[in-house]
Amino acid sequence: MTGTRVVEDRPTTQTFRIAHASRGASVDSARLALPCVITREWAWGSSNGAGVRVCLIDSGVDTAHPGLGGPVTTFTVTSEPDDDGVSYHQIVPDEAGDQAGHGTACAGVIRAMAPGCELTSIRVLGSGLRGSGEVLLSALEWAIGHGFHLINLSLSTRRTEHKEALHDLADRAYFAGVTIVASAHNRPVRSWPWNFSSVISVGSHSMAEGEYLEFNPEPPVEFFARGVAVEVPQPGGGTSRLSGNSFATPHVTGMCARILGHHPGLPTGQLKYVLAAIADNRI
Q1: Which residues, 6 or more positions from 283, have their beta carbon under 8 angstroms from its beta carbon?
Q2: So what's the pLDDT on residue 21?
Q3: Per-residue pLDDT at 4 exceeds 80
Q4: Contact present, 74 and 235 (Cβ < 8 Å)
Q5: Does domain 2-9+17-277 have CATH number 3.40.50.200?
Q6: For residue 195, how many other CB atoms are within 10 A of its CB?
Q7: What phi and psi, each to the nearest 5 degrees, are found at residue 57?
Q8: How far is it, in rounded angstroms, from Cα 66 to Cα 222?
Q9: What phi-psi label fits residue 103: left (phi over 0), alpha (psi between -120 and 50 degrees) or beta?
Q10: Residue 46 pLDDT more than 60?
Q11: pLDDT digits (tens, 9 = 90+) for 70-96
Q12: Over the chain, what is the mean pLDDT?
């Protein structure tokens, strides 16, 4: 399993070489039946995400970084043998912190977008953004079982042996009122769970505005958010400018947190609808 690759900042005048990036297409508003005008004021008003529980499944978080703007509860996944010698996973408090900088970066974007949200991290990726599919499944199952409103997955797996279990968990989340916001892979390959219709899938655009959102007329990627030269916190107190679909995804998670703070209880399907209605590329 690999997280979407972290790419150091390059001048935006160069070609953006990440798959599932916006081509600047417009979307005809007639594709959306709007019983009333859905504006951003209607969508989130003054909401800052307060009361919304967000779970970030990633490489951990540097909780001491001032750029996170508030506390983050941290967990990780451990493997222990049972009485028969078969390994099972447990979710336990994380003392190691961020192993790669990826999770801290994503946490910073979520908090920048929705500073009032309640943020929890589960570390599943280590240095080099490597991890196992079994660990990801355990973390995702735990987060769904604990009823988080939103789960940010700025990662995916290409291993087909995990596809069915991931699909089952994504559907379980959808019907339980837990919305998974998942990053498309940075390369033009098949990976999951962003390809599932039960999640909100995200790619990148190169606009500098963090709230600029595009609805994609050519799925399976459904939305594009800022993913180029994003200034993000890094372990140790500093910042970097990074590019990739990984960093577009928490922008959408933050928007969803603000919407849920204003309209509690909206399920995934309705969140997708609201996001499409407020997209900046509608004509």
Answers
A1: 26, 27, 28, 29
A2: 87
A3: no
A4: no
A5: yes
A6: 20
A7: -100, 110
A8: 32
A9: alpha
A10: yes
A11: 999 999 999 877 766 677 899 999 999
A12: 91
Q: What pLDDT, on a 0 to 100 scale, did the predictor assign at position 27?
A: 82
**Cβ proximity of 132 and 1 under 8 Å:** yes
Helical H runs in the chain? Answer: 40-44, 102-113, 133-145, 163-176, 245-262, 268-277
Distance CA 70, CA 37 (A): 34
Which two tokens mark 34? 């709007």
Quickly tell me which residue has 């408090």 as its tokens. Answer: 93
| Res 16 pLDDT > 70 | no
Length, in residues, of the chain: 283
Across the range 223-252, mean pLDDT stands at 97
What does DSSP assign to residue 217? S
Sole residue written with tokens 């200034």 = 231
The owner of tokens 């997280």 is: 3
What is the Cα 44 distance to its own chain's centre? 19
